[in-house]
Amino acid sequence: MQDIMRHPIVFFQNPNDATTGVDCYARIHRDNLKTGGVKGLAVASILALEETPKIIFYKSDMLDLDLNVIKGVVISVLENEVYVVDGFLPSDDEMIIVEAIRLPRERAQLYRAPDHV
Prior knowledge:
By secondary structure, the chain is mainly beta. It has a single domain (2-108), classed as Beta Barrel (Thrombin, subunit H), CATH 2.40.10.
């Protein structure tokens, strides 16, 4: 099951260098959470959706590739779908779970997408 959910990514250890990157795999969770009404609107039925993506890395993969998951690394998932690691969630012996922020399209275009999607 875990192998089925793995998605090809490009891991950029140095976020300031979009010319390099390591192809590997991670699990991508794109969750939309209802956060309540939209500020400034009186219509109660309108809800704002906030994307709170999570990326799950397997520790064994990161060790094998000598990659360090730290705040600020960049993860390219698809063309123009690129995230930056922003925080960490409780993990276990097998996985590293991070919260990520999606980069705007103009910044995302700087990073290559995985070749093997």
